[in-house]
Amino acid sequence: MIFQPEISTPYSYASFVNSMVDADKEVWLNDTRADFAFRMAYDKADDEGKKQLFELPNFNADIFEEISGIDVREDYKRLMK
């Protein structure tokens, strides 16, 4: 599996969100929930998982960055030699 849904960090998503004031929480949740999930999943993926992502048909690093906010070009160059 490329990205595993469980997050095992001492400062989890839930504790981060719960520490925010309500007004900021609503704006942040609407704007960054997907970006945060993408970042956590990508950071947790090992090199094999990242390589599987890059091998998807028609994978485009620029489009992936536009959608996820993650610049994967360095990993792409390193893993797809």
Outline the structure in words:
This protein has helices spanning 13-18, 22-44, 47-54, 61-68, 73-79. The protein has 5 helices and no strands. The chain has one domain. The chain is elongated, with a radius of gyration of 15 Å. By secondary structure, the chain is mainly α.
Domains, number: 1
Q: Biggest sheet: strands, sense, closure?
A: none
Number of E-type strands: 0
Radius of gyration (CA) equals 15 Å
State the helix count.
5
Cα separation of the termini: 22 Å
Helix content: 55-70%
Uncertain stretches of 5 or more adjacent residues: none
Following the backbone from N to C, one meets helices and strands in this order, namely HHHHH
Q: What is the residue-mean pLDDT, rounded to a whole number?
A: 78
Strand coverage percent: under 5%
Structural class: mainly alpha
Name the shape in a single word: elongated
Primary descriptors:
single chain; 81 residues; mainly alpha; 5 helices; 64% helix
Short description:
The chain has 81 residues and is mainly α. Helices cover 64% and strands 0% of the residues. The protein has 5 helices and no strands.
